[in-house]
Amino acid sequence: MPLPFEPLTLVHVVFSSRIAGGERHCIDLANAQAALGHRVHVIGSANSAVAAALAPGVRFHGLSLPLLRGWRVAALARRLGADVCHGHLGPACKAVAHVRRSARIGTLHVGYKAHHHARLDGLVCVNRAQRDSLPGGAALASVIYNWAPERDAAAAARHTDLRAELGLTPEQLLVGSVGRLHSSKGMDLLIAGFKTHAPADAVLAILGEGPDEAMLKGMVAGDPRIRLLGFRSDVDQSLNAFDLFVSPSREEAFPLAILEAMRAGRPVLSTATQGPLEMLAGQPARLVPVGNADALGRAIAEEIDRLRPLCARQRVVTYATAAYDRANAVARTLGFYRDVLLRQATRAKTFEDEDEAIIAG
Fold first, then answer.
1. How much is the pLDDT for 346?
2. pLDDT confidence of residue 357
3. DSSP classification of residue 57
4. pLDDT tens digits, 264-319
5. ∠ at Cα 205 (203, 211), nearest 5°?
6. Helices marked H in 4-101 — which ranges?
7. How confident is the model at residue 353 (pLDDT cuts 50, 70, 90)?
8. Cβ of 1: how many Cβ atoms within 10 Å?
9. At residue 341, does pLDDT exceed 90?
10. Which residues, including other chains, have CB under 8 Å from residue 68's CB and lie 6 or more apart?
């Protein structure tokens, strides 16, 4: 396999119909690679929200049915002449494993699962714990941290004011969270802890949508302090309105929402899941045990008491974020592609030499 000349033909695969953390990372990576002059394609589900978020230089290919996705991805990647086929989230990585003649890459947005990732050529780990726990003989791996995606210029132009929208007085503190309404994200723990321990004048806003929405609305049970706001495109502006950002997840490899909160200078309170343990080490943030609604609620109440006497300017937090630089991460991802391609080319040459030696007797 000879190494391809620049620019590369890159095919990303993500099958989600809606946009959450892993999808946003895929979109921003594809857009950044296209801006650098590479030929970039994204394969996804037809009518996916991903298509509209891609830059004009990225071509989207929608698959109308989930049947035989691995075979169809392989055929499309071959037709496009893909040098690299990069899967995002488990089902996409499983499909990418069917590809031939391309470097098969997967990003561990959640974690390693053999049935999704064992047949890939390269694995992008989003934290060191992932890399250190990979099974022996696994694919070439590299730790490349995620980054906060570029701000949505259209949303910023609308100048939304979440505090005014919620009817808050200047004295009220707003606790906020952003994430999919799914058990893994722990929004039920956040609601339970907030209801039990937060002061009467505090407000909780949760941005996101997902399968647990009806259950969470039942938990709110008419508590006027808690607002489920659904999907919003103005996440950055909403973060600026939060006095405290909370990540209540039960599992989290590398939460983009925490990075965005850090970029906005918001105080961060998070459960001590795998990603935040590494991201927030040495940072001015607070960690609490995973899966403990009471500990989470008590920590929220304590943080509100700490923040209340401070003015808005004094509540701004400065974080060390150089490790999560977008340009550096994009460059390292492209470098990893080349490492995998070189490894494949070296192996192919070794097999070729061995065959010639056998023929020569």
1. 78
2. 46
3. T
4. 999 999 999 999 999 999 999 999 999 999 999 999 999 999 999 999 899 999 99
5. 140
6. 21-35, 50-53, 69-80, 90-96
7. very low
8. 17
9. yes
10. none
Lowest mean pLDDT among 152-161, 232-241, 247-256: 152-161
CB atoms within 10 A of CB 271: 25
Cβ distance 236 to 156 under 8 Å?
Answer: yes
pLDDT band at 152; cut points 50, 70, 90: low
Six token digits for residue 141 = 């791996």
pLDDT, average across residues 252-268: 94
Torsion over CA: 20, 21, 22, 26 (sign): positive
Cα 133 from Cα 123, distance rounded (Å): 12
Q: Which of 147, 160, 93 is nearest to 121 (CA)?
A: 93
Q: Using a CB cutoff of 8 Å and minimum separation of 24, what contacts does 308-315 make?
A: 308/173, 315/243, 315/267
Question: Which amino acid is it at 58?
Answer: V
CA quadruple 270, 274, 278, 280: dihedral, nearest 10: 0
Nearest CA-CA partner of 43 in 10, 67, 83: 10
CA 344 to centroid of chain Cα atoms: 28
* 8 A C-beta contact, residue 239 and residue 273: no
pLDDT at 157: 63
Taking each helix axis from N to C end, the angle separating 21-35 and 256-263, rounded to the nearest 10 degrees, works out to 70
pLDDT score, position 302: 98
Q: 113 with 90: CB under 8 angstroms?
A: yes
Domains and CATH numbers, the chain: 9-147+325-360 (3.40.50.2000), 159-315 (3.40.50.2000)
* Rounded Cα distance, 322 and 268, in Å: 18
What is the per-residue pLDDT for 66? 82
E strands, 218-273, are 226-230, 244-247, 268-271
- For residue 347, what pLDDT band results from cuts at 50, 70 and 90? low
Sign of CA dihedral 58, 59, 63, 69: negative
Q: How far apart are CA 252 and CA 189, in angstroms?
A: 15
List of residues 6+ apart from 241 with CB closer than 8 A:
161, 162, 163, 174, 176
pTM of the model: 0.83
